[in-house]
Write a structure and sequence with these properties.
Length: 504
């Protein structure tokens, strides 16, 4: 200090300040070198953050475009809220799998905090989440998820679905409702132990409300609420969504009440019975996890399974049928393979290995559809990704869509090309960057069920029907523009399902 004073001949207070400043700069430099620097990103405004640069109606596309400018790990401000975006196969995989613990918490926007209150699986963290996820996975498996049990349920449901399609007698119709009813019946029969009639008004309401909720969950109004929670009461989307959630929960409560009243300890009809029986057992247990088996966790877990299991699977099938109508030469090849291998009998899961082209088409339709393009996590501790330091509790958006269309992984990322999943001998090949169900700690728990449903529904529909555009619309006119919500669906459309005559 004396040297500085001698050299510059300045008073001691100033010297002290300069010294502190130098030390601070040195500390920051060393700290940045040890812990890595923060991810870069566009300059942000106070309070508004990067709001003016965001396209809230097509958020994941917008975030993907920004990744091309700022790199695969960058920071964006959602109003005052910091969000780190991760794009591209290698880095998304590194975060989800290699750093699975560090990136494995859920970022829970305020609207889902208001709704779920930390219960259930999708919008929960910590020990309660862990216990509910573990219980749900093992109970769903007990009820045959991904095994013979659910195969039988799906095959039973197929008869009702094809009946609906047949009733249109080849005339154009929107298949959304039928496919939503079908996929919700699969999850309903696992949760409640029974399916519903498609024309049961109570069931129709339940499915329609779920669809509405899922659409609103990523609406601009709800995203604004995420940025500025204090605006909450003035945002219409938030209000309508909360009313929708309330309606859904009231319906589920009624279903649970009926099951509780008729519970038989010797016979578990579905997930809810298993939970109720486990809950009774836990009442006398002193184990720590016994405290998690309360009614709120049951209600929210059922709501999560129903919503996550219905819309995603139905949307994937809608994309599949649309793509078949749009690319008739691919539909020809699928139908030729199905006829040759199964001879028109009901397909079974074990047929998959003998249907490489069909399997490739199903994978490719999931790749192109990108039904869940973005997943929101948060960091459970300070972590370094690609040399960038990210603090504990930071919200992270992982772009699954950027993995499914990563140019360094896919030969023709923006075309519908089943060859992505075939070798030169026409055999099915797995691709590492095929990640529509995410990966790691938060991997979708319904993956095996969804894959089974998609395979059995898709193959049976293609055995029975030829899918074509409505009269007067050419294949190239079929609109492939996605509609963005919490999940991505095709633009509303109609198709004809012409019954096939396989005798010719
Ligand atoms: C094509 C159909 C489906 C797709 C594309 C899909 C995709 C996904 C994705 C991307 C996630 C988020 C993972 C993450 O945060 O990293 C997820 C989570 C989840 N999915 Fe699925 N899913 C499908 C079907 C299902 C079905 C049928 C069920 C019900 C059995 C289900 C239940 C869940 C649950 C409960 C979670 C939350 C997991 C957690 O937070 O720990 N999904 N799904």
């Amino acid at each position: 200090m004396a040297v500085v004073q001698e050299l510059f001949q300045i008073p001691s207070v100033v010297t002290l300040l300069v010294s502190v400043l130098v030390l601070l700069i040195l500390y920051l430099l060393i700290d940045t070198q040890i812990r890595g620097k923060e991810p870069p990103g566009p300059r942000s405004l106070p309070l508004l953050g990067n709001l003016l640069q965001l396209d809230l109606k097509r958020l994941h596309l917008n975030l993907f475009q920004l990744s091309q400018k700022y790199g695969p790990v960058y920071t964006i401000y959602f109003g005052p809220k910091k969000l780190v975006v991760v794009a591209g196969y290698k880095i998304v995989k590194e975060a989800l799998v290699n750093l699975g613990e560090e990136f494995g918490d859920r970022d829970i926007p305020p609207v889902f905090k208001d709704y779920a209150k930390g219960h259930g699986i999708v919008f929960a963290n910590g020990d309660s989440w862990k216990e509910m996820r573990r219980f749900a996975l093992s109970t769903l498996r007990d009820f045959g998820m991904g095994k013979r049990g659910s195969e039988e349920k799906i095959i039973e449901e197929i008869h009702y679905l094809t009946e609906v399609f047949e009733n249109f007698k080849g005339k154009p119709f929107d298949n959304t409702e039928a496919l939503m009813h079908t996929t919700s019946n699969i999850i309903s029969s696992i949760i409640y132990g029974d399916r519903f009639d498609y024309d049961d008004p109570h069931f129709q309401e339940m499915v329609t409300q779920t669809k509405r909720n899922v659409q609103l969950m990523a609406s601009p109004g709800v995203l604004i609420y995420d940025m500025f929670p204090w605006l909450g009461w003035w945002l219409k989307d938030r209000k309508v969504l909360m009313e929708g959630f309330k309606f859904t929960l009231t319906q589920i409560k009624q279903m649970i009440r009926k099951l509780r009243e008729t519970l038989n300890l010797e016979e578990r009809r579905g997930f809810v019975d298993s939970y109720l029986i486990h809950q009774q057992k836990m009442k006398t247990s002193r184990e720590q996890e016994s405290g998690y088996y309360h009614d709120e966790n049951l209600l929210m877990t059922v709501a999560n399974l129903f919503a996550a299991g219905t819309d995603t699977t139905a949307n994937t099938l809608r994309w599949g049928l649309l793509l078949m109508a749009k690319y008739p030469h691919i539909q020809d090849r699928v139908q030729e393979e199905l006829d040759r291998v199964t001879g028109g009998r009901q397909t079974r899961i074990e047929d998959r290995k003998n249907l490489p082209y069909t399997d490739a088409v199903i994978h490719e339709m999931q790749r192109v559809a990108q039904v869940t393009p973005l997943v929101r996590h948060s960091t459970s501790c300070d972590v370094v990704l690609q040399g960038y330091s990210i603090k504990k509790g930071t919200a992270v958006a992982l772009l699954l869509s950027s993995v499914l269309s990563d140019e360094s992984e896919w030969e023709s990322p923006s075309t519908f090309n089943p060859s992505h999943f075939l070798d030169d001998q026409g055999r099915f090949i797995k691709r590492d960057a095929f990640m529509p169900f995410s990966a790691g700690r938060r991997l979708c728990i319904g993956e095996s069920l969804a894959r089974m449903e998609i395979f059995l529904f898709f193959t049976t529909l293609l055995q029975k029907f030829r899918f074509t555009p409505p009269p007067g619309v050419s294949e190239s006119d079929l609109d492939q523009t996605p509609v963005f919500g919490f999940t991505v669906s095709p633009t509303p459309h109609t198709l004809c399902a012409q019954p096939r005559d396989r005798s010719s």
